[in-house]
Amino acid sequence: MRVTISGPPGSGKTTVCKLLAERLGSDYIISGSVFRSMAQRLDLSLAEFGQLARRDPKYDQMIDEDMVRQAMEREDVVLEGRLAAYNLARRGIPAFKVYLDAPPRVRAVRIVEREHGDVERALEEMLEREECEAERYRSWYGIDLKDMSVYDLVVDTSDLLPEEVVDLIVCGMGGRDG
């Protein structure tokens, strides 16, 4: 079964994606890794690369098209990305679509635990990045990231362990055939 995992930075997408793929015996694809890799190759911070991507849609389009292509080639894959659910839905590719969320400060603390630094600065950068992404996706794709109607399951991860989130997803997938 194809599964998409979406949500804002620090919501637990990557961790849950990897754990879910392991549980399902599926491959996984992480869009954020591709984005970070592109930023590093250009010697830019994520915020700087986000600004570049704001001016030139080719960066987002490259990531999106690769995710769609891989989803079309595989029936058993977990795709992590902000637009994964929207892109598969728009192309009629069946998937169980999950959205993970948590309050901004919770997500900023998680980001600092992962990447180190200062929580206040991480919060500021995270919110700036989210605003940049929301603007890009709205103007280029007509997607409102606040529209949850595309998702089969929405989970607040604030007080849950990643394994508990995976349990909820697997339970939610029950009876679905992809």
In short:
This protein has 178 residues and is α/β, with parallel strands linked by helices. The protein has one domain (2-173): P-loop containing nucleotide triphosphate hydrolases (Rossmann fold, 3-Layer(aba) Sandwich).
What does this 3D model show about the protein?
This protein is of the alpha/beta class and 178 residues long. The chain has a single domain (2-173), classed as 3-Layer(aba) Sandwich (Rossmann fold). Helices cover 58% and strands 13% of the residues. It has 8 helices and 5 strands. It has helices spanning 13-24, 31-41, 46-55, 58-73, 84-90, 104-115, 119-141, 162-173, and strands at 2-6, 27-30, 77-80, 96-101, 153-156. It has a 5-stranded parallel β-sheet. Helix 2 (31-41) runs antiparallel to helix 4 (58-73), helix 3 packs parallel to helix 7 and helix 6 crosses helix 7 (119-141). The termini are close together.
Q: How do the strands and helices of this protein lay out in sequence?
A:
Layout: E1 2-6, H1 13-24, E2 27-30, H2 31-41, H3 46-55, H4 58-73, E3 77-80, H5 84-90, E4 96-101, H6 104-115, H7 119-141, E5 153-156, H8 162-173
Parallel strand pairs: 1-3, 1-4, 2-3, 4-5
Helix pairs in contact: 1-8, 2-4, 3-7, 6-7
Task: Determine the number of helices (DSSP H or I, runs of at least 4 residues).
Answer: 8
C-alpha geometry: globular
What is the CATH topology classification name? Answer: Rossmann fold
Helix-strand topology string: EHEHHHEHEHHEH
Largest sheet report: 5 strands, parallel
Q: How much helix is in the residues?
A: 55-70%
- The tally of strands reads 5
The CATH architecture assignment turns out to be 3-Layer(aba) Sandwich
**Highest-level CATH class:** Alpha Beta
Q: Which radius of gyration do the C-alpha atoms yield?
A: 15 Å
Task: Give the amount of beta strand, in percent.
Answer: 5-15%
Q: Detail the poorly predicted runs.
A: none
CATH homologous superfamily - what is it? P-loop containing nucleotide triphosphate hydrolases
How many domains make up the 3D coordinates?
1
Distance between the termini: 5 Å
Structural class comes to: alpha/beta
Q: How much is the average pLDDT?
A: 90
- The strand order across the widest sheet is 2-3-1-4-5
